């Protein structure tokens, strides 16, 4: 039997199961990204820049900043328990990060409808914003928690 579901209700009903599933991202684990907060349409994570994350100039590689931004985007758009995948992203690099910097990425939902959702992500170190990402996701029909959608 298929049932009509409210995304926010699904989030609160299955928040722990959703968080557990999204924390299984092995690439994020490998980078040392830690999910610190998850709400309906939002997420926050942090990581520390290590020696193996530096580029040829001795600052954090852009791919590392993109990775943490992409991770919180993925958590935010999947936070309703409905399978969502990235369609497009645009990132701007605003400042350099150094080895030892602890960076935090925060994603927030701008707009969501049945098929797509839009997010803004800011990555900061202790001093300033270091990257900004705008992202669009595609929302599939299926939920990865609970029953089926009508």
From TrEMBL:
Keyword annotations of the record: Hydrolase
- Which SUPFAM superfamilies does the UniProt record give? Thioesterase/thiol ester dehydrase-isomerase
Q: Which GO terms describe its molecular function?
A: acyl-CoA hydrolase activity
**Classification via InterPro entries:** Acyl-CoA_thioesterase_PaaI, HotDog_dom_sf, PAAI_dom, Thioestr_dom
- Thioesterase domain: residues covered: 57-129
Q: Which Gene3D superfamilies match?
A: Hotdog Thioesterase
What top-level branch of life does the organism fall under?
Bacteria
> Where do transmembrane segments lie in this chain?
none
Question: Span of the secretion signal?
Answer: none
Q: Which NCBIfam families match?
A: unchar_dom_1
- List, alphabetically, the PANTHER family matched: ACYL-COENZYME A THIOESTERASE PAAI
Q: What is this protein called?
A: Phenylacetate degradation protein
